[in-house]
Amino acid sequence: MTEPFLSIRKLRKAFGAFTAVHDVTLDIPKGEFLTFLGPSGSGKSTTLYAIAGFQDPTSGDVLLQGKSLLSVPSHKRNIGMVFQRYTLFPHLSVAENVAFPLRVRRRPDAEVKRKVADMLALVRLESFAERLPGALSGGQQQRVALARALAYDPPILLMDEPLSALDKKLREEIQTEIRRIHRETGVTILYVTHDQEEALHLSDRIALFRDGRIEQIGTGEDLYLRPATDFVAGFIGNSNFLAAEHLETVNGAATVRLGDGSLISGINANGSFQRGQKARLMIRPEAFRLDQGSTGAELAVEIVDVAFYGERRRIVARTGAGQEIDIRPTSATLATQDVETRHRPVFFDPGAAFLFPA
């Protein structure tokens, strides 16, 4: 069995009586882009800082190529770091900011000059070499910080909410740049964010944190299409949760009764359920259709509101049990008459829905 490039073993970090990270265990292969995703206070940044050496774990270990890093000071771990705040030296030019970690390591001047040129070309800022950071936009400053972190060829690059201070359009542009740089360098990246769209766009895998633990780890597709818990289903993407009563499960396919009395069969059951147990039926907004198609479960609703979002329309509907749900069919397949009828059925594939304990 191949030894993982980076291993986190039963990592635990306590601050007095409060435990921020509970026994987190992870294996990260070389060259992977792994994102730590989760709400504020879920333990993702604390885990990152333990890897960087900024915080000592209460217990557990961090191993790089089989060797523990815990006894190695943070400045000798040779790990690159990019923060939310750019932390550039305001009195140094862009080129000198990028050169700084190389000069600290006493690299030869010829190597420093070559590496700075390579890094500025990588982040497409060659013409800005002599400018001061104050003359750059926020996105350009973050690209300089990225170039500086990569200048000394670290085996791992840690990024802690690096784009959260940027506006949406600029954030999306820098995400594209980060993906390109990852492809071109092959560096192993551990990335922290609370933005699910950012995580889905950037990552090879996502570790979703909750209360200091990893709730689920997998590709974005795994977490979106096969959520292990209702927390994952609710945090990744948009979800509708309908109150339901479990009636039976046969070969992993559940039958439930909804609040309006309708019966739905063929639902993915996450966990074991007793007959009569209260449950939550999760259906993605885009899983709903306004036409029946060849198969599908039917749900009677009242149309409350319709809004146009370009490629999609967002329909707010109310079920017979009084719950409002979000429906997002594509505009291209949606005729005006489809939403003119206030009381009407909508349809969905039960195999695309999930059942969770209430």
Provide structural commentary:
- By secondary structure, the protein is α+β, with helices and mostly antiparallel strands.
- The chain has two domains: 6-233, Rossmann fold; 238-357, OB fold (Dihydrolipoamide Acetyltransferase, E2P), CATH 2.40.50.
- The protein is built from nine helices and 20 strands.
- The strands form four sheets. The protein has a six-stranded mixed beta sheet, with helices on both faces.
- Strand 9 and strand 10 (213-218) form a beta hairpin.
- The longest helix has 18 residues, at 168-185.
- The radius of gyration is 25 Å and the shape is elongated.
- The mean pLDDT is 90.
Number of domains: 2
Approximately what portion of the residues adopt beta-strand conformation?
35-45%
Q: Tell me, what's the shape?
A: elongated
State the separation between the terminal residues, measured CA to CA. Answer: 40 Å
The percentage helix is 10-25%
State the CATH superfamily name of the largest domain. P-loop containing nucleotide triphosphate hydrolases
The CATH topology of the largest domain corresponds to Rossmann fold
Total count of strands:
20
- What's the architecture of the largest domain in CATH terms? 3-Layer(aba) Sandwich
Strand order of the biggest β-sheet: 6-7-8-3-9-10
Compute the gyration radius: what is it? 25 Å
The DSSP helix count reads 9
